[in-house]
Design brief:
32% of the residues lie in helices and 25% in strands. By secondary structure, the chain is an alpha+beta fold.
C-alpha cells in the first residue's frame, strides 16, 4: 500500500478543513472499500480523513424531516435500528446483506453510497425512500436528491473538498412498505448480479397505489429508478396482473452488460422476477393480499 497521511477529526469544522487540504484527500467512513482500493492501486490518496469520530456523522435518529443517517453510521446499527425495521424495511433488508457480520460492523451506509458502485445494495432502498444527501464543504452545505447524486461508475457529484454529511429519508406514510432482494451466485458475501428495491403506498379503502418506487442495482452504470414500472403502478388498483406488468416495465430501465456474473439477458429477466417479488413482499408487509 502506498504511503499516505491519516487524520481523525472530531468536529465538522475540522473535517471540512482537512477535506480541503491540497493533494488527493479521501474520506474514510468505514474503509471496507477504500482500504482495498488503496492496496490494489485502484485509488490513490495523499491524506485519508477518518469520519468515525465526528458526532454529527454518527447520527442515527428521526425528527420532523425524517430519518437521519450520518455518513459514518455502520450498516449493523442501521440494520438493527427499531425505526428502520418498522418504517424503512428495505433498508433493513439490504444492510443485513453487505458482506459478513464483521464487515457490517465497520462498513458505513454513507460509504456504500459514496463508493458509487452500480451494485451497491443500500442505494436502491435509499432511492425508493427518496433520500436526500446533505453534502458539506468549504462553502457550507447543500442538499442533493440521491437520484441526482451518481454520475457514473464510482463517480458522484461530490466536488473537491466536499464530503457526505448525512442522508435524510422522509417519513413514510401509513399503509406503506419497502423491500429489497438481490440475486447472487453464492449465499453470502458476493456482489449482486441484479438487485431490486420496491416501495408501495396503498389507499387502505380502495387498495389503489398512491405511490410506487422501484430502483435497480447492477443493471446500469449507476443505480437507477425504474420509472416506467412506477408509472404502471401509480393510480391503479393493486392486483397480481398489475404486478406482472410492473415487472415487465422495470426491465425497460435496465441497460445491463454481460460479464462473468451473468449475461445481459439474464440480468433483464432477474429484474422482472425481483421486481415482482419485492412488490409482493411490500404487500405482505402492508397486510394486503392479491
Amino acid at each position: 500500500m502506498p504511503n499516505f497521511d491519516y487524520a481523525a477529526p472530531t468536529t465538522l469544522a475540522e473535517t471540512a478543513e482537512l477535506m480541503s487540504s491540497t493533494g488527493t484527500v479521501r474520506a474514510l467512513a468505514g474503509g471496507t472499500d477504500l482500504i482495498d482500493q488503496l492496496k490494489t492501486n485502484r485509488r490513490n490518496a495523499d491524506l485519508v480523513v477518518d469520519l468515525k469520530r465526528v458526532p454529527e456523522l454518527q447520527r442515527l435518529d428521526a425528527d420532523s424531516d425524517g430519518l437521519h443517517i450520518g455518513a459514518a453510521v455502520c450498516c449493523s446499527d442501521v440494520h438493527h435500528n427499531p425505526l428502520v425495521n418498522e418504517k424503512y424495511q428495505g433498508l433493513a433488508d439490504s444492510t443485513g446483506l453487505i458482506g459478513s457480520v464483521q464487515i457490517q460492523n465497520r462498513a458505513a451506509v454513507g460509504g456504500n453510497v459514496c463508493n458509487a458502485a452500480p451494485s451497491a445494495d443500500t442505494t436502491p432502498n435509499l432511492l425508493t425512500h427518496e433520500a436526500v444527501a446533505v453534502i458539506a464543504g468549504p462553502n457550507g452545505t447543500r442538499n442533493v436528491e440521491l437520484a441526482d447524486f451518481f454520475v457514473g461508475p464510482g463517480q458522484t457529484v461530490l466536488q473537491a473538498g466536499e464530503f457526505l454529511q448525512e442522508l435524510i429519508l422522509p417519513t413514510p406514510p401509513e399503509n406503506s412498505a419497502s423491500a429489497y432482494l438481490r440475486f447472487i451466485p453464492r449465499n453470502e458475501m458476493d456482489i449482486a448480479v441484479a438487485g431490486v428495491s420496491s416501495f408501495l403506498h396503498l389507499d387502505p379503502a380502495t387498495r389503489t397505489v398512491q405511490k410506487a418506487r422501484v430502483a435497480l442495482a447492477s443493471v446500469a452504470p449507476t443505480p437507477v429508478r425504474a420509472r416506467a414500472a412506477e408509472a404502471v403502478l401509480e393510480g391503479q388498483l393493486i392486483s397480481a396482473d398489475l404486478i406482472s406488468q410492473a415487472g415487465a416495465a422495470a426491465v425497460e430501465s435496465a441497460t445491463p452488460i454481460t460479464d462473468v456474473r451473468g449475461s445481459a439477458e439474464y440480468r433483464r429477466e432477474l429484474v422482472n422476477v425481483l421486481t415482482r417479488r419485492t412488490l409482493n413482499i411490500c404487500l405482505e408487509r402492508i397486510g394486503v393480499e392479491v
